[in-house]
Each structure stands twice: as C-alpha cells, then as structure tokens.
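So, could you explain this one?
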Amino acid sequence: MIVTHATSRVLRTPADNPLVVGVPADGATRDFVTLELDTDEGIQGIGLTFFGGPLTPALKEAVDALCRLVIGEDPMQVEAIVGKLRRAAGGAGPGGIFTLALSPIDMALWDIKGKALGQSVCSLLGGYRDRAPTYASGALMRPMNLEYLAEAGPRLVEMGFKQMKTQMGAESTVRQEVDRMRVLRDAIGEDIDLMCDINQLWNVSQAIEVGRRVEEYHLFWLEDVVAHDDYPGLARVADALTTPIAAGEYVYGITPFRHMLEARSIDIVMIDLLRVGGITQWRKVAGMAEAFGLPVVSHLIPEIHVQLVAAVPNGLTVEYMPWTLRLFEDTPAIVDGQMVVPDRPGLGLSFSQDAIKQYQVT
C-alpha cells in the first residue's frame, strides 16, 4: 500500500463554544487546516491542524509541501515517514509551523494504519481502556463574572460533567481572584473536580501567593501559572503548593518535556497534539511522563485525544473543548463523565461534508 494523493482545505468556523449559554457571540471565527490522505487500496486517513490568525495560508502550504514528500510512501511505516519529514525540514523545526504541519500528516497515517489493521488507534497504542474521564473546558472563562460562574458551574454538572476548568489571571486584586474559586466551589460542591488555567499571566510570586490562598478550594490542578519555559520558576511554584501544577501545552516537540520533567517543574504533563508533532511524538512524551511517575492530560481536539489518553496507563483526563466538534460526522460519546473511544477502526472519525461545504475557504 502507498499514499497516492493528499487533499488539504481551510475551514473557517464560528469561534463559539456550545457549553457557553447566554453570552452573545461576537462574530469571531476560527480557521482549521484539514487533511485527507488517500492510498492505492482505497483507505483514507484524516488529520487536522490550526494556528490562528493570518498565518493559516502559510500553514496550509506547509502541510501541502510535506505531503508531497509522503506521496509514494508506505503509510504503515509511520515512524520512517515522520523521520523523513523531520530530516527534510530540519532547519525549520522542531517547533513552530513545521511541527504544526507535521501533526495532521502523522494523524492521517495512524488513521490509515488503524483502518488497514481493523483496529482503533487507541488499540494500536496500547488499548489500556475504552474510555477516559473528560472535563468541560471553555465555559467558565476569564471575562465571565461571578454571577455567570455561579449559574454555569451547576449547569455543567447537570449535563453530566464531573470535571470542569475555569480561569484566573485577570483580576486586579488577589481577593477577586480567590472569589472566583470560592463562588465556583460553593456552586458545584466538593465532589466535582475543578481545574484552573492561568495562561502564563502570573509571575512566580503571584502564583505562590494566590495558589496558597485558593488551596482551601481543593483545585484538581493549576495550569500554566508562569511562562511556559521558566522551568525553575514552575518548579518553585510546584514545591510551594499542595495543588498540582500542570503545564506543557505551549511547548513544541518532545525535548522541552524532558527539561520540564528533569527539573521537576510540573505534577501533571499536558500534551498538545499539534505542537508536540502528532500522535507519534505524543506517545513518546506520555512514556517519558510515566517513567517519572506523572499523569498526562490533553489539550484541545478531544475527538482524537480520547484515543491517546485512553491508550496509556497514565492518561488522566481529556479536555472537552468543543472547538472542532462541528468538523466531524460522528463524535465520541460522553457517558457518565467519560469520553468513549469510538468502536470503529483508525481514529473512528470522518469529516462532515456539510461542514466542508459550509465553511471551506476558497
């Protein structure tokens, strides 16, 4: 079997979140680059990537350029193809646009391999379980006031979520930051896991001060509390707090994870499928984390990430950020707070033809 053709598209969708209720849409959009790889045996694999902003056309071109190097290759030899692409574009990697362009190709190759063997990608990667916990993300964002948080938290619980994530980092006083956690914890009760993302907005002293003030609310983790590449700073925060520190979504490739782990900077390893370089690289980081006795969690694209988090023994939870939901025909079910791996080979996904017709940018 060989790869015979590649089709990439740019899809521009509304930048909304179906978990958000009662907040008017602002008309913003979100661009995705989708990929379909075809083979001479009629098996097609899919992948996607995104970057945002004016560089989307450049990202599509990067995907197309790498795909031209894949034509004629045996899609079952995923590691060999990834190695070929890394060597060909070594001067442009391992971070930035090269890694983002590599990721959808890697996904599509794993999708083809799973379909050819009649197994899910989860099974190919280890098949540790057939589902994984998932948490609601994007519904309790930084601009939303306390009244909204008090209403939205219980609504997510009613929807079946046992975990959810909010944000801090924009209030003018420590007391206002703490109030956000107090209101949410009072609203959802003690039995729901509550995470909080800072998105690198604090310095080390702020992270320790606010982190200590919110410890009574038993956060499941604090995420990206300081700059993503400040490994010593992250380690200082992790040492000072009982709340676990999560980070990793902002780094590219696998090497920065080694540095974070060796510096004991984090307690929970968050892996972004696009920035790490695809499924092949994702599983390597998961293995590194397991060697350090640490769990891994995902960032975005839950429809694909469920295959990965469920496959490994240290997979903790899947971020349910439904940005990509409308791109697919059928998406993984959520049952009792857990996302179920599709009972279909490969990624178990297909792009929605209606979405392509409606959102494709020509």
